[in-house]
Amino acid sequence: MSDNSNQFLDALKEMQGVEVGNIVDVEVLSVEDGQIAVGVQNAGVEGVITRREFTQDRNADLHDLVKPGDTFKAWVLRRAGGDKENGEFFFSVTRLKEREAFDKLEKDYEAGNAIEGTVTSSVRGGLIVNVGTRGFLPASLISNHFVSDLKPYIGKTIKVKITEIDPNKNRLILSHKELIEEEREEAFETVASQLVAGDIVEGKVSRLTNFGAFVDVGGVDGLVHISEISYKHIDKPSDVLKTGQDVKVKVIGIDDDRHRISLSIKQTEPSPFEQATSELSEGEVVEGEVKSLTSFGAFVEVADGIQGLVHVSEISNKRVEKPSDVLKVGETVKVKVLNINPDEKRISLSIKQAQPAAEGEGNNARRSASRNDSVAKKYMSDNNDNGFALGDIIGDQLKDRQ
User: Fold this and answer.
1) E strand or H helix at 255, and its extent?
2) Radius of gyration over alpha carbons of the chain, in Å?
3) For the whole model, what pTM was predicted?
4) How do residues 98-154 score in pLDDT, each as one tens digit?
5) Pairing between strand 114-123 and 126-130?
6) Which of 38, 83, 181, 280 lies 20 to 30 angstroms, CA to CA, from 293?
């Protein structure tokens, strides 16, 4: 057998040692615009690596990345097509890196580890994250609340957990929301152990919704429902609050099971009742306007929007059958403040005690004041800043007409 025949057989044996799926050491022979020519070291086998199989950057200039003589590992992708006799192969570096990345990611997945990645782009329904290979982060798993704008995430480094992995299908699903929930639970346990209902603390508005504002208190978001933002009616939270604003909040509830903290901004401030009655004191005589009349007494406005009850027995020293017999709506009268109850938002008043008392009537007046205050409570709502139950008034007015 000739020397040429022997050399051919040796080369054939070496070439047969390179199979699809192998990881081999290659040396760069030449660099072209769209591909790299390489040879398998110590095998006498040549092949090419296309740009897409060398880098994920579709605009990269291969001349800037490699030069003849460079060596590295590559994955044998497939044989070259056609009837070429030189047995060329196609190789891939990117798929080798993906394979190595998947091996590590599978270990992280099994251990439940958090990993870091860089958001490279946004696609319909989520983000593409580079974690050594391409992973998909669905929009629903980005945060614990709805995210409408994905662009601000591009280029950012983000921590994620793997929720699904399948190397054979090159499938990798990620979640940032899972990490947020885990961190939130840990933070909740810490913060909730330091708070009790009634505490007033400093917070920062972290997010606004149509139904309220989320306020960060010590690393945990608590909800200020729209009804707890202000004593005045507001259409939407953004009318009075802005993201990042520092606010004082009162803790009004802690739900350990659902990991929720309920907060109030308005309860850190005096209520309209407290503000309006701040200049009133028991025993003081003031002027007020008769706002409504019922069978059991008269409601008199003694401060802006605040009304107190003059029970029928406190209208006059003389017996009064019906308040409307001696009083008119809109009439200005002098009244004495008998009692102010901030907790129940009630004020008891007297017209007759605002007048100079006849001799011997003082003791009777004090006794009637105590009795009338208890009567007033029957008709006053503790859920209304005006200090009376509208239903009771309307009901009694209808009785008067019958």
Assistant:
1) strand 246-255
2) 41
3) 0.48
4) 888 898 999 999 999 999 999 999 999 999 999 988 899 999 999 988 888 999 999
5) antiparallel
6) 280
